[in-house]
Structure formats: structure tokens, C-alpha cells
Amino acid sequence: MNKNHMNARRIVVTGLGIISALGFDINTYWSNLLSGKSGVTLIERFDVSRISCRIAAQVDGFDPNAYMDFKEARRMDRFSQFAVATSIKALEDSCYEIDSSNESMTGVMIGSGVGGLSTLEEQHTRLKDKGADKVSPFLIPMMIPNMAAAHVSINTGAKGPVGTTSTACAAGSNAIGDAFEIIKRGMADVMIAGGSEAAVTPLGMAGFSNMNAMSSRNDEPRKASRPFDRDRDGFVMGEGCGVLILEEVEHALARGAKIYCEMFGYGMSGEAYHITALEESGANVARCMGLCLEEGGIGIDEVDYINAHGTSTPINDVIETAAIKKFFGQHAYRLNVSSTKSMTGHCLGASGAVEAVACTLAVRDDVIPPTINLDNPDPACDLNYTAKVKQKRRVDVAISNSMGFGGHNVTIGFRKFEK
Q: Is position 151 annotated as part of the catalytic site?
């Protein structure tokens, strides 16, 4: 047990917000996850005829004007709009109001792997077609990845630490972990933390498709994302945002906040190996999980559920499985694993945050969301992946893994709250 955690400030989750292909509110999102619903559909908002992957888990029907002024929304990229809307939802869920008495101790950490890609594409087209003098003066403040956090701060009035993580597909988990550590250090009492991404664009789809990283199962969109299945052929992109309200426990109790669960740990490790691939032994991912548990004083046999990175790519799923077995030993076969990316798609920098919401709810409700489309398990993937249907079991401890291009590994951990 790590003795240092005994005297540290404890952090709880008091609010949740979500925008995803499976819904814009927590109850809808959770119900769809538990029922095994896929959010993957054909892309129709732009021409995909020359792109090998023509499907994605898209956010349809989102109206930014429901959350912000029309003029303000026009000066934000879609990923920032998602972040503002989701943060407003999470604060409402937490019943937490930011005012002059608490604004300096309320902060924001929002991760994004790509940032304002659609803005960049639109303005580059304008540059080519109409000339440099026609490029929008809002290009830079709409495109840069920190603007999701900036707009959340501006819209909510949070004046504590405000920052951004941009560690590819680990960005959302890094943001939540960094927010956790900021509260532990006493720099804030409350953090609005999560990840936002809107990379379902022509350039985003073409770039990943041409890497041969994405599924080409275009004739069966809802069956395309199939983590740990023998017939998986790549990930399916998703978009959206997840936000957690993290709060110091005494602060939460003093205001009578509802508490979903406690966040106990944050592990990070680097691969130092390859720009896109994991090192084959899984040792660095295993070490990352160990660091998360160590921070919370959690034993290996106490973990009930792992929300896997589980991308549905041939390499990732085998190596993540190996890492779980390497770290947990025989207990790896007693815990539940699932990849909710089988339903939400891979939301890149938002994925860790979208999945942290699922972890939080699994701890609250004692139920494991499934991995859908797991029809023929890969022989190298031999754990309990909660195939096809949810599973009821007591979930005292859950962890979530994220891995980003460049070798960024992150594990964040949640447990049932006890005073």
C-alpha cells in the first residue's frame, strides 16, 4: 500500500455530462450502452466515396444554440461547442454554481487530440480558393486545442487552473488525471474535467483511413467496431465529449452534493517505442495500471472491472490483453473487461473521458456494459470481455485504460465512496 495516499486530499465525482452518438444525456447514454446499442452509421454529411472507411459514430442533432449565444457559437469549432455544452450539463448534474465565492478554486482541464480540424479544413479551402486576405481572423482561436477548456472557463466563470492535454487518444484521461492531481495539491476544490473531439471530417477520415487503421466494414456499420474479435479490421471513429465534475470530498459533503464514486488513482507511462504502435510485451501498459492502483492503495485482487482501450485494431487488443494478464496474473480471469468503443466508436482525445463516465456509472450501479460484436474471440484475447450483453456484478473498483499515438499510456481509477 502506498502510505502517501493516506494523508492526501480525497476526490469524488459529483457530476457527469455527455455528448455522444448514443445520446446527449447521462440516462440515455447509459441505457444505450447497457442495451448494447451501436452508434455507428454511414457518413452522409460529406463525400466519402474516395475514403476506404465510410462509417463513424456521429453526433447528430446537436444544437449549440441551446447552450450558448448564436454569435458566440459561430466563433467556436464544433469540439469547443461540445465541451461547453457538456460542461454546462455536468455542472447542472452536480448542482454546483460558480460565483465570486468559489470561482478562483474552480478549474477546467479539457483534453483534445486533434482540436479544431473542421475549422482548419474550411479555412485552408478558403485560402486556396479566395486568397489569404479571406482567411477568417478567428481561424487560430477556433483551431487550437486549448480553446475547449478556454471556452468552458469563459462560459462558466471558472478562474482556477485552466489547461489542456493533447496526448492523442489519451488526452481525455490525462485531463481527468491532471485535474485529480490539481485538487490533491490544493490548487482547486472543484475541477471541470474531460475530453472533447470532433474529427469526423474529410481530412480526419482520410488521414486515418490511409494509415489502414480504420475498419472498411462499410456494409455493416453497426458490426464494424468489434474489439477482441478475430475478425476485427480496425477502429471506427467517433466524436463527442465527456465531462466529470471532480471535487474535494469535504467540499462536496459540506454542500450536500450527491457523490457518484471516488477517484483514487492516476497512472502514466511511456512506450519509448514507435509513433503509432505499442511495444509488444505490454509491460509499459501493465506498469501504468500498477501506478494507478498504487496511488490509491488498491490491491490487484480488489479490481472488478477494466474499461479497456479496446480499439478493435489487430495490434492494440492483443497487447492490451497481454498487459492485463502480465499485471493481474490469475486475477485477470476473474475480473470483467469491456470496450465501450464497440458502441461509441473511438472518440480519439475524448475517448478516455467518455469511458470515464461509463466507469463511474458501472461503480454506481454495479453493472458492466458489454463489448458488442464479439462473435469469434481472438485466441490471443482470452479474458472475460463481457461479450454482447451487460453483466450484473458488484463493482467496488473500476479502472479505465487509454493509449495514445506516440506512446502515451494512462490509467485512471474509481471506487465506491465510503466516508
A: no
